[in-house]
Design brief:
Blueprint (H helix, E strand, L loop, with lengths): L7 H6 L16 H8 L4 E5 L2 H4 L20 H6 L4 E7 L7 H24 L4 E3 L5 H7 L3 E8 L10 H7 L2 E5 L25 H13 L2 E3 L5 H10 L4 E6 L13 H9 L3 E5 L12 H14 L10 H14 L7 H15 L4 E4 L17 H10 L4 H21 L4
Parallel strand pairs: 1-2, 2-4, 3-4, 4-5, 5-6, 6-7, 7-8, 8-9
Helix pairs in contact: 2-14, 11-12
Length: about 400
């Protein structure tokens, strides 16, 4: 999908001074920068609402990765990022009526955080609920914000809440996170599967998502949950932030047979830029102990007060220097992308940095780095049409299909 429907051949031929694009990212050619700037570019998993919930966080200000922030308006502009899915995330904890009520309230509060972020910055952002809103909002010179739910435990006590959240603008929902819940099995619960896929309630969740026109997200779900979602859903499925198991064998990643099944259903995998799902990361007990003491001294990184932030950053940097961990790189990310493109096809792939939620790798550490990935994709032979699909067209297509098929 090209920004404002303009052919990139025309834009490239007119060469870019008139476009007044932001300064090019390091190592990105001017031609690729122009190409990137004139695509609809989105990420399907921003955990930024967790930062926005912290008093004093300003999406209009340029933050740093060392501050625990990877997404803000200045860096979106710098990276040619037009918007994405802003996540309502609830950690998986206890289950039962009391936990369901607490989870519901937390998710409602987080939804309000997103609405406030957009409303307080309405000159820069607009809420999006339809696939076509991405281009409409971009034409208006703003960034678009879709809303998604990661871990639908807040809905488990009462599936009619799915309509409540739909009315609040939620258009993508993932049933499960790190642990099993009342909807089904997680890919990573150390206890193993509980239901052999979806629970009966989880199957009702799939049906209600189809009825409403909500895009189903199988990231974090077990392989059997994905199989059953593909079989039961009338609409395509998305994996909003997942890798290729053939490149790195991790339960969070998807094998080739399921990649083909996802594509056959018309679905999309958004490749995840998260070191732990791309390579072996050693366990360093001394590092873990030092980080625990750091948290005791300063609190959560997101909650460190302004007058202690520099001291916190220095202490954290000292731990990282003393106990360094390897990080995945753009080369690793490209391996996942190219493999998924080969197995599923370029109509069925996209990207998520999993930013503000633990993602980020060397060379792709925040949203300002998106043009560097376009540079790599161009060198790998991606055409402008391929890039338009990869950076937003494919995800918006499945969003549109979920809406078109609703109620069927």
């Amino acid at each position: 999908m090209f920004k404002f429907g303009l052919p990139l051949a025309v834009l490239l031929a007119s060469a870019a001074p008139a476009l007044a694009a932001p300064a090019a990212s390091s190592g990105v050619s001017p031609a690729v920068k122009v190409l990137h700037e004139n695509l609809i570019v989105l990420d399907t998993h921003f955990d930024t609402p967790a930062n926005a919930a912290v008093p004093g966080f300003d999406i209009r200000a340029r933050h740093e990765v060392s501050d625990g922030s990877q997404v803000d308006y200045p860096r979106m502009v710098e990276g040619g990022v037009d918007g994405g899915f802003f996540v309502i995330f609830t950690p998986q904890g206890a289950r039962g009526p009391a936990a369901n009520a607490a989870n519901r309230d937390l998710a409602l509060q987080r939804a309000l955080v997103i609405h406030k972020l957009v409303a307080r910055n309405s000159d820069l952002f607009a809420l999006a609920t339809k696939a076509e809103d991405a281009e409409t909002i971009s034409k208006a010179g703003k960034r678009f914000a879709y809303i998604s739910i990661e871990n639908s435990a807040p809905l488990a006590g009462d599936l009619t809440l799915m309509k409540t959240f739909y009315d609040m603008g939620v258009r993508m929902m993932g049933p499960i996170h790190f642990a099993n819940n009342d909807l089904g099995d997680s890919a990573t619960d150390p206890k193993g599967p509980e239901f052999g896929g979806l629970s009966p309630l989880g199957k009702s969740f799939v049906a209600e998502a189809n009825r409403l026109g909500v895009l189903l997200d199988a990231s974090h779900s077990s392989d059997l949950v994905l199989d059953q979602m593909l079989a039961l859903s009338k609409a395509p499925i998305i994996l909003s932030h997942t890798g290729a198991k053939a490149i790195y064998n991790h339960p969070r990643n998807i094998d080739d047979d399921r990649l083909r099944a996802l594509a056959a259903k018309g679905g999309v995998i958004q490749i995840n830029a998260f070191t732990g799902y791309m390579m072996d990361v050693p366990k360093i007990p001394e590092r873990d102990a030092a980080l625990l003491e750091l948290t005791k001294a300063y609190g959560s990184p997101r909650d460190v007060p302004a007058d202690r932030r520099e001291a916190y950053k220095a202490a954290r940097a000292a731990i990282d220097a003393k106990y360094p961990l390897p990080r995945a790189t753009l080369n690793d990310l490209m391996k996942h992308i190219l493999h998924a493109a080969k197995v599923a096809g370029k109509d069925h792939i996209g990207i998520s940095g999993d930013f503000d939620g633990g993602g980020g790798i060397e060379g792709f550490d925040d949203v300002s780095d998106f043009p560097a990935l376009t540079e790599r994709l161009v060198k790998a032979g991606f055409t402008k049409e391929d890039l338009a699909k990869f950076w937003g067209g494919n995800a918006l297509r499945v969003l549109q299909e979920a809406d078109r098929l609703k109620g069927s």
